[in-house]
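User: Can you predict the 3D structure for this chain?
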Amino acid sequence: MSDYDHDGPIEIALVGDITDNEPELTEKLLQVPPGGTCTLYFDSPGGSPYTAMSLTSLMVLRGVKATGIVTGECSSAALWPFAACQRRLVTAYSVLLFHPMKWQSEEHVQITEAAEWARHFEKLETDMDQLLAELFGVSSDVIARWVRPGRYVSGPELAEAGLAEIIPFTSLQIDAKNGAAGRKRPITAR
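Assistant: Here is the predicted structure, written as C-alpha cells:
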C-alpha cells in the first residue's frame, strides 16, 4: 500500500539519480493500478538508460495515466519517463538536458566484449532516440537537433515546441482534492 492515504492520484518524486532510486520508484509505480493515474515530480539528472527503459515500460505496459511536472531538472535518462506522461508540465525555470548516450565501464573487459558493447550502445542510442521522439509525439529530427551535440532546453522552449504546458511559477498550488498541480489562473505560454 501507499506510504500515506489520501484521495486522488498517487504522487511520486523522481529526484536524484533514477538508477540509485530504481527499486523505490518501481515499487511506487506498481502501486498505481493498471490504467490508474499518478503525478510524477521530476528533479533528476538522469541515470542508466536501462533504468529509464524499465520505468517507461512499466508506465506504458500498465497504461498509467501520468501527469509529469518538472520542478527543477529533468535530464538524460529521466527524459523517457517524463515523455511517457500523458500530460507534461514545466515552469519557466525547468531545465531538460538532451545529449548523446554516454558509456563507461569500470570493468576489465576484453577487446571483443568492448566491441560488442560499442555495437550494442550504438543501436540502443538510435532506438532510444526514436522512442523518445515517439513518446513526445514529434519528428525524430526535433530530438536529434537537441541531442547532438547536447543541449539544455528550458521549460519555455519545451512548451513552445508543443511538448509540454508551461505553468507560471506564481500560480503553482496543490489541488488537495485532485492531488495534482492546480492553477489559480489559466496556463499561459511565455
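The longest helix spans residues 111-136. Confidence is low (pLDDT under 50) at residues 183-190.
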